[in-house]
Amino acid sequence: MAASSGSLETSTNSNSQPQQSSPFSFSTSGSFMTTSFTDLLSSDNYPGSAGANGSAAVRRGLGERIAERTGSGVPKFKSLPPPSLPLSPPPVSPSSYFSIPPGLSPAELLDSPVLLSASKILPSPTTGTFPFQAFNWKSNSTNTQQQQDVKQEEDFSFQTQTNPISTGHEAWGYQEPAKQEGTALKSEINSMQRFSPEISNGFQSDNNQHNQSSQANKKSDDGYNWRKYGQKQVKGSENPRSYYKCTHLNCPTKKKVEKSIDGQITEIVYKGSHNHPKPQSTRRSSSSSSTATLASSVAIQSYNQINEIPEKQYNSNGTGQMDSVATPENSSISVGDEDFDQSSDHKSKSGGYHEFDEDEPAAKRWKMENEGEGISAAGTGSNTVREPRVVVQTISDIDILDDGYRWRKYGQKVVKGNPNPR
DNA sequence: GGAATTTGACCATGA
DNA sequence: TTCATGGTCAAATTC
Fold first, then answer.
1. If you compute the radius of gyration of chain A from its CA atoms, what whole number of angstroms results?
2. Pairwise CA distance, residues A201 & A322, whole Å
3. Distance of C1' in C12 from CA in A385, Å
4. pTM above threshold 0.70
């Protein structure tokens, strides 16, 4: 639950470098919003409780509620978001990400010992970097605000006291990037999204190369070669969506990329796994060096945990720890080509790249992916700055992803309508 | 001239 | 059954 995972960044952000402010800045500076996530949770208007209330008022957009609270106008994307844009509260609602079982209050979840503490940010085991460091969370906040931010972040973050390998403070703490510039953009990242410096690099690279020749764009900085096979304007987004296939022979990997008009990537969704090593690239290193300046933030969403992709299944190695899984995303995330080797290992462990149900129509799968993406920055900002989102659809059952983090399973449940346990 | 991209049409799926 | 939507195909276009 993105919204629950962190405080909304409410910075009014008159900053001339909105992108630098990063979607990952959880600062609450500015008048936009000073409401903590806890407040949201406790709010009667909180969509999570809307199910019971179900009133139209309750279903107002988050931006509206925020504006109501703060008295400040909520910037809207281009002022007039299309009616069809996902501005409605449900997508924004943290509840869209999390389903809190009856009898379990959000507060309990927040107090859960398995929740990862945002304060326990550790470098990526694979990259040795702090995934968020480039995002300069508090760069736009005052010290006091920073304190508050941290506090809020802790409030929302899952904390773990048993697993020293903290992971995802960002994941859980991350709040919709667009909150800052708020728009109806789909740049929001859900709670489980992960940030990868390398993917970020890829984004930046893509962005930087946006205006370059198509040839130059052939290989994105995720290390693979992609061929665009389609583009379409999707409903609810003014950004065209491009469809890419990995150019490697027989490689089933695809990705969807949404770019804003100005060429900024607002969303990337990967599908499938590469069945080949990452091509040699001489640009990656250079792109990596620019990570710190990356304006666009990227998040990796593990659908098997978030969006409940049917094909997603968890394979436990019996130790309670999930085997690493090789996915194209993972490969993209990790540093160096050795990640392909990891992928190979994963293949052997998980039984192959294509464990996901190939019988399921791809369209359906992708659609399901998007179902969890409903969060819009609706009314959370006025800027057109969009933080690219990378959605990694892992296809293995493994819970430890090669996104550089380790995931600890803390529950499993059979969800109605979904044959696979969540 | 070959390869990549664009873009309209077609198809599948779900409401 | 119809319609809306998203994904893919493939001819046309561009590089």
1. 20
2. 27
3. 34
4. no
